[in-house]
Write a structure and sequence with these properties.
Layout lengths: L5 E5 L3 H13 L3 E5 L2 H7 L7 E4 L8 H11 L3 E6 L4 H9 L4 E4 L4 H13 L11 E4 L2 E4 L4 E3 L5 E3 L2 H12 L4 E3 H8 L5 H17 L10 E4 L3 E4 L5
Parallel strand pairs: 1-2, 1-3, 3-4, 4-5
Antiparallel strand pairs: 6-7, 7-8, 8-9, 10-12, 11-12
């Protein structure tokens, strides 16, 4: 069990924490649960979760702000679990960097399945795939979720950004359609998924120093998808 993925649960409802912990531990995961954002953030100094389940209705912190910071600073998969069921809440959560959004009430088995899917995708076929790739003077370390510029400047990648970049580097100079993104990265087809992808790609372009009017590495093919133009070394 010591090598099992660690899932951090942040929810102020004790019964939700107990329900999620029981389901995840029965499925073979390790868990740590927190009722308040301050406790969770303090714990991140000593633990490195593989995935975080974040409730938005926290008593001491805005949940969306926490998701945004985690996406910028952590390589963990981020799944929002919230009673906010409006489409705009889902869109906002995905735009701020969450990998997935589950509304309450939920089936514990669904949460387990979503986490397994999130943690499985980056490792599929990794035995034959390098974990560090170089392109156009840049380096992407998918173990450390780190992007290194030609001048040596290091920039962290969120789990969601790393998934998109991995998809691009696995398919250089090929058209990647929205349908392929949906199939590979998972999610629910619709405006929320499309907007989340647009935001992730925009952030990737920013971190890669791209000119949005004339990108050199990630080219938009309007009405079709994207092409990653760099050679991979």
């Amino acid at each position: 069990m010591t090598d099992a993925p660690l899932i951090a649960i942040l929810d102020d409802e004790p019964q939700i924490r107990r329900l999620l912990s029981a389901a995840l531990e029965q499925a073979g995961f390790r868990t740590q649960s927190f009722a308040r954002a301050t406790e969770f953030e303090a714990a991140l100094r000593r633990i490195t979760p593989d995935a975080c389940l974040i409730d938005l209705g926290l008593p001491d912190r805005d949940g969306l702000a926490l998701v945004h910071r985690l996406a910028a600073d952590s390589g963990a998969a981020i799944i929002i679990i919230s009673g906010r069921a409006q489409v705009q809440d889902r869109v906002t959560g995905l735009e701020l960097g969450a990998d997935d959004y589950i509304t309450k009430p939920f089936e514990p088995a669904e949460v387990v399945a979503r986490i397994r899917a999130r943690l499985r995708r980056p490792s599929q076929g990794m035995a034959n795939r390098p974990r560090t790739l170089r392109f156009a003077g840049w380096s992407a370390d998918f173990d450390r979720y780190l992007l290194t510029a030609p001048d040596g400047t290091e920039t962290p990648l969120s789990h969601a950004e790393a998934e998109v970049l991995r998809l691009f580097t696995d398919n250089p100079r090929r058209l990647i359609t929205r349908a392929q993104m949906l199939e590979t990265l998972g999610g629910t087809a619709g405006d929320s998924f499309d907007r989340a992808m647009d935001v992730r790609i925009s952030r990737l372009r920013t971190k890669l120093g791209e000119d949005p009017k004339n990108p050199r590495l990630i080219k938009t093919i309007y009405g079709a998808g994207y092409i990653f133009l760099a050679e991979i070394t």
